[in-house]
Design brief:
By secondary structure, the chain is an alpha+beta fold. It is 36% helix and 30% strand. A 4-stranded antiparallel sheet has the order 2-3-1-4, with helices on one face. α1 packs across α2. The relative contact order is 0.33.
Length: 69
């Protein structure tokens, strides 16, 4: 597993709840993810075997800014 870190435009818990099923499906079966909405960059940490571009595409496809740090 690799830990990937992203800067995002996700800033509200309501947005996280909408993304939850998509992110969970992406990282299953053993991956994990979480947002740090207290951070100025609204950090998303993802523990997965997926490549970073998969996460970026997922969030961008939902209308959010996402870039790997």
């Amino acid at each position: 597993m690799t830990v990937l870190v992203f800067k995002t435009s996700v800033s509200k818990n309501k947005q996280v709840k909408r993304l939850k099923p998509l992110l969970t499906q992406l990282v299953e079966p053993k991956g994990r993810w979480n947002f740090d909405l207290e951070d100025c960059d609204n950090i998303l940490r993802v523990e997965t075997r997926q490549c970073p571009s998969s996460v970026v595409r997922l969030l961008q496809g939902q209308g959010y800014v996402c870039e790997e740090l």
